[in-house]
Amino acid sequence: QVQLVESGGGLAQPGGSLRLSCAASGFTFSNYAMSWARQAPGKELEWVSGIYSTGRYAYYVDSVKGRLTASRDNAKNTLYLQMNSLKPEDTALYYCVQGWGVNGHSRGQGTQVTVSS
Taking a C-beta distance cutoff of 8 angstroms, is the pair 66, 82 a contact? Predict the structure, then answer.
C-alpha cells in the first residue's frame, strides 16, 4: 500500500531554515507529481507546492514563493521541501501528498514545523 512518511520538522527561529523530507513507498514514485500541503492551527488545509514527476517544474502558493523550494530524488523515492527565511506564519503541520492538491491520491501523517523566537 502507499506509504508517505514525512520527517525533518521541528522548531526554527524566524529567518531560519528547515528541510523536510518525504519517503515514499508502495507506488512508482517517478510516475507521479507530488505536492506539499500544510495546516496551521485553526485553519483549513492549504496547498503549498507541487512538483512534476520529472522534478523539472515546481509551483508554489504566493505566500512561499522565493522562500520554499520543492525538489525530488526519484532514485531515492524521496520528496523534499527546503524552507528558508521562515516566518511565524509558516507554523503548521506539513503533509506530503501523492499527486496534486491537498488530498491527491494519498497523504502522509505530517511533520510539525514551528517558527518562533
Answer: no
pLDDT digits (tens, 9 = 90+) for 4-55: 999 999 999 999 999 999 999 999 999 999 999 999 999 999 999 999 999 9
* Size (the chain), residues: 117
Alpha carbon 65 to chain centroid, angstroms: 13
Region class of 24: left (phi > 0), else alpha (psi between -120 and 50), else beta: beta
The residue to which cell 501523517 is assigned: 109
Q: Which residues are bridge partners to 24 per DSSP?
A: 4
Q: Give the three cell numbers for residue 13.
A: 527561529
Q: Other CB atoms closer than 10 Å to residue 32's CB: what's the count?
A: 23
Between CA 86 and CA 17, with CA 83 as vertex, the angle to 5 degrees is: 60
The residues facing 68 across adjacent strands are 83
Predicted local confidence at residue 48, as pLDDT: 97
